[in-house]
Amino acid sequence: MSASITAVLSSLQQQGLQQSILGIKRGIERETLRVNQDGSLAQSAHARALGSALTHPWITTDFSESLLEFITPAGEDIEQTLAQLADIHRFTVRQLGDERLWPASMPCFITDQHQIPLAQYGPSNVGKMKTLYRQGLKNRYGSMMQAISGVHFNFSLPQSFWQAYQQLLQDDATLQDFVSAQYLSLIRNYKRVAWLIVYLFGASPAMCQSFLEGRQSRYAFQKLGKGSLYLPYATSLRMSDLGYTNSAQSSLNITYNSLPEYISGLHAAVTQPSAEYQSIGVKVDGVFQQLNSNVLQIENEFYSTIRPKRTTESGERPTCALAKRGVEYIEVRALDVNPFSSIGISAEQMRFLDVFLLYCLLEQSPPLSAAEQQVTEQNLKKVVTDGRRTNLELLQDGQPRLMQDWAEQLFADMMPIAKWLDQAYQTDRYQAAMRQYYLSLLDPAQTPSGKILNHLLSARQDNGPYMRQLAESYRSQLLAEPYQYYSEQDFVAAAEQSHLRQQQIEAADTLSFEQYLADYFREVPACTAE
Questions:
Q1: Span 25-30, average pLDDT
Q2: What is the DSSP code string of 150-170?
Q3: Name one GO biological process term (predicted).
Q4: Average pLDDT over residues 3-11
Q5: Which residues, listed in sequence order, are joined to residue 28 by a DSSP beta bridge?
Q6: Cα dist. 388→133, 240, 274, 382, 453 in Å?
């Protein structure tokens, strides 16, 4: 058991600060493809009844017009957040006619990448910039990778906890600087043990072979049924280098040892020219092909399993918001869509993440060197492709260690945190969630990836038809259930308001698109120089 965690929890209890943890806030962003009844990608435009994808607070699109993204407000109640997410799904399904929501991370059958329509946000400068950014992603990496879905978990701790924790550590920095430094500390430890999240929650061991679209793969895929590929011990093909990674970014030295260091690394990436992307061109025959030819067009292009975040003001760059006002919350990005949930995530997952992220915060977190960061990425890749393999070894402190042994130590270190949260929230659900996932550790067949692959192999079924069955089942379930938090009128009003807001943005534009882009990119050196 971790001595540092035990000491912190004991000190908080002795000083009567047990309740300081109350008020954890969480928000969910869930991505899902719209598909036709036969499982093919929907080619229809974003439904007007769903509101403006540019301005709607809960329903938008990601890379593609067919790739929906559902966003819950940040809230303190897990069940309420899930009820909000379920209602967003429920309303959306009622607007889609015969279309379904794809329940998996890896996409459905797609003939070629040109079937994936870019998301459209209207003729305003900000709307055109969002679409052009996606055009740049298509030109750089292809559209197939961008059709992958995930779940992002946004997490922040209450000010009452930060004040108590700063007092406990006898830290004399400003509260903003202290909070930022502690979130970065959490992120470093998360990077060290993110492989556990992929093992427990990875749910994409198989995929449609159309995803490869003639590309070569270094993986020894096995074939299943008419058109599926799988790896016997894989947990999350989404998190492999087939999926949401960017080999061009591997040379970036973006580190997490301090907020200025992180911002500096991102700033370098968004301002450093790339010979490879210069060959694409920025404006070719009068038509924009990408926002710019730098290593990253904008900060969001940096594919990381976790990000420090700060709510931005209109037109503000993410790095500038962080530089001015510090880290507000973190965004966990290593989560596959949970195919066994109609809304892509469960309450048990959220409670486990609370415990896991608090472990990452409270455990000692020395600086993470570039060399060690490479080791963390290698460990993650091993678990991505071979996580359910018996006797899998990872590297810890330069020495090989059985993944199973390391994971058991992590569970032992996390259990006191689960107990602390249960006492503070007057429940037993945190410890129950830990026990549930510990069973998945003991038996890899109980993981989502294990359950999916065992079903496919025993039923001799393709991945696509199985996901279609789940999509059909969830559609019927969502249509049959009443709203839990919002009402139909709430969604109608939000959609109408979002269309009005988009019209106001379009009417307020005074600059040419070229001037708008120039002004936007001018902010980076200005804010980092402050």
A1: 98
A2: -EEEEEE--HHHHHHHHHHHT
A3: glutathione biosynthetic process
A4: 86
A5: 153
A6: 37, 15, 38, 10, 11
Integer Cα distance of 310 and 322 in angstroms: 6
**Dist CA 293 CA 282 (whole Å):** 6
Strand 67-71 to strand 59-61: parallel, antiparallel, or no bridges (unpaired)? antiparallel
What is the per-residue burial (b if ≥16 Cβ within 10 Å, else e) of 300-313?
ebbebbbbbbbeee
Buried/exposed code over 247-273 (b: 16+ C-beta within 10 A; e: otherwise): eeeeebebbbbebeebbbbbbbbbeee
pLDDT tops 90 at residue 8:
no
Residue pair 390/402 in contact (Cβ under 8 Å)? The answer is no
pLDDT at 528 over 70: no
CA quadruple 491, 494, 498, 500: dihedral sign: positive
Amino acid at 379: N
DSSP letter, residue 26: E
State whether the Cα torsion 189-195-197-200 is positive or negative: negative
Which of residues 181 and 253 earns the better pLDDT score?
181
Greatest CA span in the chain, whole angstroms?
70
Residue 334's pLDDT is what? 94
Q: Using CA atoms, how far apart are residues 78 and 425, in angstroms rounded to an integer?
A: 12
Pairwise CA distance, residues 265 & 251, whole Å: 11
Strands lying side by side in the sheet with 222-224: 206-208, 228-230, 222-224
Report which of residues 498 and 220 the model is more confident about. Answer: 498
What does pLDDT average to over the chain? 94
d(CA 202, CA 236): 5
In angstroms, the CA 267 to CA 511 distance is 25
User: Is 361 within 8 Å of 229 (Cβ atoms)?
Assistant: no
> What domains are there in the chain, each with its CATH number?
3-246+333-522 (3.30.590.20)
CA atoms of 227 and 111, how far apart (whole Å): 12
Q: What is the DSSP pairing of strand 206-208 with strand 399-402? A: unpaired
pTM of the predicted structure, to 2 decimals: 0.96
Secondary structure percentages of the chain, helix, strand, coil, to 5: 50, 15, 35
Alpha-carbon distances, residue 201 vs 69, 275, 389, 412, 435 (angstroms): 20, 38, 16, 19, 15
pLDDT at 249: 65
Residue of 200, 528, 154 whose CA lies nearest to 348: 200
Amino acid making up residue 183: Y
Structure tokens at 83: 């009820």
pLDDT confidence tier of residue 15, bands split at 50, 70 and 90:
confident
Quick one: average pLDDT of 388-400? 96
